[in-house]
Amino acid sequence: MQANQPIGIFDSGIGGLTVANAIRQVLPNEQIVYFGDTAHLPYGDKEPYSIKHYSTEIAKFLLKQNCKVIVMACHTASSNAYNEVLETVNGKALVINVVDPVINYLKNNKNKLIGVIGTKGTINSGIYENKIKEEQINKIVKTLATPLLCPMIEEGFINDRISHTVIQSYLEDEKLKNIDAIVLACTHYPLIKKEINDYYNKHVEVIDSSEVVANFLKEELSRLDLLNKEERKVDQFYVSDYTESFEKSTRFFFKESIRLEKGSIWS
Ligand code: DGL
């Protein structure tokens, strides 16, 4: 691995651009190669074996693009396919999922009762409960699948009556009662962070996993002396199914206009 190679990032679609954006903010000199598997979106409702298959194929594609690190921006993929991706990559690049950096963050966090919201695929995997137990971290985890949030955000219902109602009805759930912190364990949720913060009115710490992951990645690259010191090359954004509407939505997730290219993995 060399410092001037790009950072590969993948997700089930364009939602992972929130993670790419967080990475861009803390690592402005790094070239990004992004892959969104829009042909198989959403992963949140898929069987783990499908998610493992898609994720390993995408990892091979990112290896061909010469990436020094593969960031699994998708929580559902991170929760269900990390070991398989690690095995496929076989040391040819660093692999970073979006769960371990959050677990790491929680180790040094004073809060005790931690809520986690994400897709059905993330929550049903039990990854957060298992890791907290495995690593003997003194926290109690309460998880809740919130499947309506992704389509709501994708359809542009943000900061309005509909989003307030949907967010409130999820956060009111008994399972999340008395939590001290909440992990936004999905690519899309940074876009409703403000509404979630407003709901809790500073009584609950809202943990934005995209920021936690970006900081973790920066530390890792610096520790391994893999930070790019040359001039940044042009980013590349691939999707497996191209539509104009995907391209239009990219600005919403990445905050900059992007040109999407069709990346043919599934032929
Ligand atoms: N990217 C997914 C995640 O972070 C959300 C969208 C999907 O279900 O594919 O879990």
Care to describe what's here?
- The chain has 267 residues and is α/β, with parallel strands linked by helices.
- It has 2 domains: 7-97 and 211-262, Rossmann fold (3-Layer(aba) Sandwich), CATH 3.40.50; 100-209, Rossmann fold.
- It contains 11 helices and 10 strands.
- It has helices spanning 17-26, 48-64, 75-89, 100-107, 120-125, 127-134, 149-154, 161-171, 193-200, 209-223, 244-254, and strands spanning 7-11, 32-36, 69-72, 94-97, 113-118, 140-145, 181-185, 205-208, 236-239, 260-262.
- The strands form 2 sheets. Strands 4-3-1-2-9-10 form a 6-stranded parallel β-sheet, sandwiched between helices. The chain has a 4-stranded parallel β-sheet with strand order 6-5-7-8, sandwiched between helices.
- Strand 9 (236-239), helix 11 (244-254) and strand 10 form a beta-alpha-beta unit.
- Helix 1 (17-26) packs across helix 10 and helix 2 (48-64) packs across helix 3.
- It starts with 6 loop residues before the first strand and ends in a 5-residue tail after the last strand.
- The mean pLDDT is 97.
- It binds D-glutamic acid.
The count of strands amounts to 10
CATH architecture of the largest domain: 3-Layer(aba) Sandwich
Summarize the helix and strand pattern as letters. Answer: EHEHEHEHEHHEHHEHEHEHE
Gross morphology is globular
Q: Helix proportion of residues, in percent?
A: 40-55%
Question: How much of the polypeptide forms β-strand, as a percent range?
Answer: 15-25%
Roughly what is the average pLDDT, rounded to an integer? 97
In CATH, what is the class of the largest domain? Alpha Beta
Question: What is the straight-line distance between the termini?
Answer: 29 Å
Largest sheet at a glance?
A: 6 strands, parallel
**Gyration radius from CA atoms, angstroms:** 18 Å
Strand order of the largest sheet: 4-3-1-2-9-10
